[in-house]
Amino acid sequence: MKTTPIPPSIRTFDLPGPVGKLEALLNQGREDSPYCALVCHPHPMGGGTMHNKVVYRTMKALHGLGLPVLRFNFRGTGRSQGLHDGGRGEQEDVRAALNWLDQEFHRPILFAGFSFGANVGVRACCGDWRVHGLIALGLPIAAEGRSYDYGYLPACNQPKLFISGDRDPYGPVAEVEAVVATAPDPKQLVWIRDADHFFVGKLDQVEAAIVDWVQRNFVVRNL
């Protein structure tokens, strides 16, 4: 099937959020792409922003498949207005981003989040009919005194991909596997061998896992 080339432009703008403007970037995709995507960043208190390397490489994987990809800074991060809310208000930030994508593209959405962004984003997207797939990278169990709850996962019926490093101190193998076991099918858990929380030196493998999963479950089937 003939496809339209991906425009090279990146759109920088302010996304209307629940407590003010959210700094955002949109990597333009193909006009005929059947999906668009949202990628969320790690904990702002640890320096996480939409420019994080894992977030960028996740965007690159999805954009390489032709999808328009939105990234934004959570409230209180970068030029985004508001104050950090410990993951509560940030769920509303995610929903604001979903609303913008839905209004802008009128097509199904794939979500991806790294660390804090995975916890907050999957929680916000769980059960949202507009979100057809969920990708959680570096799912945190406990980090720097913060514990993360996944009691919502059994209600997440969308297809799910979990990617973690088997040397991630914030997500030990046994604990991540126990959490993923509570999620209903369809799901896939990919372990990146010898990778830490930030997938240092392993980001090519992360990209490949994302591309493979999306192609098998979404893009190839729908193009």
Can you give a write-up of this model?
30% of the residues lie in helices and 24% in strands. With 223 residues, the protein is α/β, with parallel strands linked by helices. An eight-stranded mixed β-sheet has the order 1-2-4-3-5-6-9-10, with helices on both faces. A two-stranded antiparallel sheet has the order 7-8. α4 links the parallel β9 and β10. The longest helix has 20 residues. It starts with 9 loop residues before the first strand and ends with a helix.
* CATH level-two architecture: 3-Layer(aba) Sandwich
CA gyration radius, whole angstroms? 16 Å
Shape: globular
Classification by helices and strands: alpha/beta
Q: Please give the number of β-strands.
A: 10
Helix content: 25-40%
Main sheet, how many strands, which sense, barrel? Answer: 8 strands, mixed
How many helices? Answer: 5
Q: What's the pLDDT, averaged over the residues?
A: 94
CATH class term: Alpha Beta
Could you give the order of the helices and strands? Answer: EEEHEHEHEEEEHEH
Spans where pLDDT lies below 50 across 5 or more residues: none
* Strand percent estimate: 15-25%
Q: What distance separates the N and C termini? A: 7 Å
CATH homologous superfamily classification: Alpha/Beta hydrolase fold, catalytic domain
The strand order across the widest sheet is: 1-2-4-3-5-6-9-10
At the fold tier of CATH, the topology name is Rossmann fold
Estimate nothing, just give the exact number of structural domains.
Answer: 1
